[in-house]
Please model this.
Amino acid sequence: MKIKRKTATNAEISTASMPDIVFLLLFFFMVTATIKVKDEQLNVNVPDAQAVNSVDKKFLIKELTVGFPKDVRLGHSPRISADKQMITLNQIGQWVQRQKTDLGEQYKDQMIVMLRADEKVDMGFIGDIQSELRKNNARKILYRTLVHN
Model:
């Protein structure tokens, strides 16, 4: 008596419907994705500049925005915004310490504050912000401006 061996069957996965599945997934993610809109609470028109400097290490830049509230219920005096949240002059120290912690030990003293201020904000208020930054050892300050060639 002779024993016959079974022939090995190839188990193949059909890939005929693969393009349809990929298209459906792509369409699903395109429809359900939301576009992140920059939701600013302040109106800011930055002034024009005559000379400009650039920064090589962009990760050192932390931005503060100073402008007038869009919502009239918040008043008409200039306000400070950091990380899309309104802060007061007294909270700048806490903000600086949080930003320095995020940077890490080796870059703490190299943090650069980018001050994006409306051109109509009183310089006395800007000076108060600068002195709060200096008190908290954030001495490198840049001003965001527009350059027209």
Notes: The chain has a mean pLDDT of 82.
